[in-house]
Specification:
Four copies of one chain form a homotetramer. The first copy, chain A, is built from nine helices and no strands. By secondary structure, chain A is an all-alpha fold. The first copy, chain A, has two domains: about 30-90, Homeodomain-like (Arc Repressor Mutant, subunit A, Orthogonal Bundle); about 95-225, Tetracycline Repressor, domain 2 (Orthogonal Bundle), CATH 1.10.357.10. The radius of gyration of chain A is 20 Å and the shape is elongated. Chains in contact: A-B, C-D. The interface between A and B is large, with 38 and 38 residues. Chain A binds a DNA duplex through helix 1 and helix 3.
Amino acid sequence: MDTTAPEENYSEKAPPMAPLSSLRELPTTKRGARTRAALVKAARKVFERDGYLDSRLADIAKEAQCAAGSFYTYFAGKEEVLAAVLLEAQEDMMHPGMGRVQGTDDPYAVLEASNRAYLEAYKRNARLMALLEQVAQVEPEFRRFRSRRADAFIHRNARGIADLQARGVADREVDPMMASRALSGMVSVMAYSAFVRGEEQEEGTPVDFEELVSTVTRLWANALRFPGHR
Amino acid sequence: MDTTAPEENYSEKAPPMAPLSSLRELPTTKRGARTRAALVKAARKVFERDGYLDSRLADIAKEAQCAAGSFYTYFAGKEEVLAAVLLEAQEDMMHPGMGRVQGTDDPYAVLEASNRAYLEAYKRNARLMALLEQVAQVEPEFRRFRSRRADAFIHRNARGIADLQARGVADREVDPMMASRALSGMVSVMAYSAFVRGEEQEEGTPVDFEELVSTVTRLWANALRFPGHR
Amino acid sequence: MDTTAPEENYSEKAPPMAPLSSLRELPTTKRGARTRAALVKAARKVFERDGYLDSRLADIAKEAQCAAGSFYTYFAGKEEVLAAVLLEAQEDMMHPGMGRVQGTDDPYAVLEASNRAYLEAYKRNARLMALLEQVAQVEPEFRRFRSRRADAFIHRNARGIADLQARGVADREVDPMMASRALSGMVSVMAYSAFVRGEEQEEGTPVDFEELVSTVTRLWANALRFPGHR
Amino acid sequence: MDTTAPEENYSEKAPPMAPLSSLRELPTTKRGARTRAALVKAARKVFERDGYLDSRLADIAKEAQCAAGSFYTYFAGKEEVLAAVLLEAQEDMMHPGMGRVQGTDDPYAVLEASNRAYLEAYKRNARLMALLEQVAQVEPEFRRFRSRRADAFIHRNARGIADLQARGVADREVDPMMASRALSGMVSVMAYSAFVRGEEQEEGTPVDFEELVSTVTRLWANALRFPGHR
DNA sequence: AATGAATGAGACTTCATTCAT
DNA sequence: GATGAATGAAGTCTCATTCAT
């Protein structure tokens, strides 16, 4: 089963749904490549630090140690750098095949491994996820981007659920798609709450990662009425 | 039991958590009250139409048919009108005691009624909820506002869960708070996805409201291992 | 001799050079008189506190506990209240005939009494003097007002000097007018520096009043080569 | 002796008391330097013409023939350009060592040369001095600037006076500092009155420069009881 | 390619003054 | 007379984007 987790999901390298176009052609010279890379890196730093809205192109250029005008050699504007940033991060934001849990067929173990992988990836890229959430609220283009990612993930989990239903492991009363939507959402909300909001406020008990994994997995398994008594 | 639902929940009229201050004093005269009300109404309309960030004070004033300067008689800026808008809407955004489901003690029925009430309120105020989500990404003050609301709700549901655990109706293995966080989040995510994102895109099957209620309720009940076989 | 001191000088009650017009007619009713008086008083307070430029009519009205609109019943604007404030204060700002130093003819004693009276009056109204200096830099009308006051004083002292020259008590080489300008200016500068600038900065040795009087008097007397060896 | 004259006095190039900071960094390119210089020049012109308070940044930009926004490339606001204007003028506002009156030790001659140098510098920069007086009434930062300048001058003259007292040339009864304050103030008042106020009003006898110098010098010398009978 | 100055549209605020009650 | 809300002109400042070197 592949009951991974919510909202983001691109384990397959495949053309990741051509999310964001690079209008500008890539630089020809070595020097150009270097500058462009510096800009993308700087952009990520500035975005994560100041937020997308409060960041200015001038800051990004300064951070990349190049002139404001140079920015436009590579990008048409803020949106486009952000696209580049996201594109570049996409790889790592995708949990790496959840370690396969080789050699088991136990649905619960698979589910747990899947959730763990998702949450680890989320944690690793928490600031970027926060950024994406913010941007999605503001730029339709990125709202669509986020939706597509979430949908891909949801569909995959829906297939997993349907499969389990077929095998008699999961409750047949629920619609696989709706259930996937709900449970995937549940996990992503928890991730956001733990790693994004958790970071903002200094106070409060930082959630224990293992407890997070096990709670989420247990609820998910129960919700689908996995057999067994855990 | 009071397993209401996610993110927002203020059936008790009690101190509406004095969320957002109205620095400017309220108008003395009838005329003033009328103008202020017109501004709040106009602000809500403009915010919901253009989004918080893309709206200009001038537009709000125009919508309220008053001079730009008049705005400042009542509010110090965008934030403050928004606070007023939210304050005014708070009442209705709170689902009204979920009808009590008088006469039953069936946890499942209570849960379902609670979820239905929550989702109805969410649907009724979908555009405002969308606005709140947007603003929370941008203005710390409103991020806190949203958090406080969610927390209040989560705590209430956590109490409900703990109660059910004590009565032997709910799985004792999960921490009530974490479970509440996860399940409440699940419902609010579904509400957002159905009523906010569902509205944006014309295409797609609009979710059936009843199916939403029953799915969410079933998953919630299962997750906590309510007894019985539904 | 009447070698009083600088910049301000209106001991004679006589129509004090019709300095500032009261366009608005004075109030008829008792209530009106009360309001007007309250406004003038409030204006002085606000002006002295916030400075002329940074004060707003709304503040004055509030301080006078009346509505903003009421202001215009009595004054055409800021300038006019200020005129009223100055008019009202004029009386006390004028040192009271310097006690005449009755019974002496000693020029030095007269001079000293005159300077003392001037400095006392200046000190008493320091904040208002500061205000006047400020306003004179900004409003031509009040620049002229200040000039006329200074001139009146200078002329008077010039007459005093001429008189002493005639009596052989003062150096005949200097032009009475120029000398008066210089010496009167000297005293007013000292007064400003001691009572206005001295107040602004907490630090520093506050000037000893008596030392101020005696220094100024001695220098003045010496400058005109009063006979005798003090 | 170095009984220069009043209020301003910086013949020594020494630390120009780092009066006003240029927060914005200076332009790198030649073009930038040109624009900045044009802005400073324009600012001086506009300030002297309209007064500090009534001048608008837009006017300055227009005068410098550049876009309004360009202003902010070099200055944070009105205050900062003014600082630049003052900084640039500082050099010339400082009378140049008063020609030294080489070869004489006659205190009177030195004093006269000093006063002449001061008054010439004042006259040369009369409009700027007027501006400074105005601004000092309005912006604390510049009030302090003016005070520091005056103080430097006063201290220098005080030293001169003390020196003369030691040499038996000046009256020992007066405190050097107070005397310096008074006499320095006397000269600056005369300068202001002659070159600033004298310009405003078309009418009136424009003061004869030489008479001004000699009167001021004579009174100063007398006040300190220089020996000799002039 | 890189630079960094120049541009200018546009949004925000303030407050003196007017005006309907 | 008094009230206090309404008005709207003016000025400030920000930055994405362009452009001459």
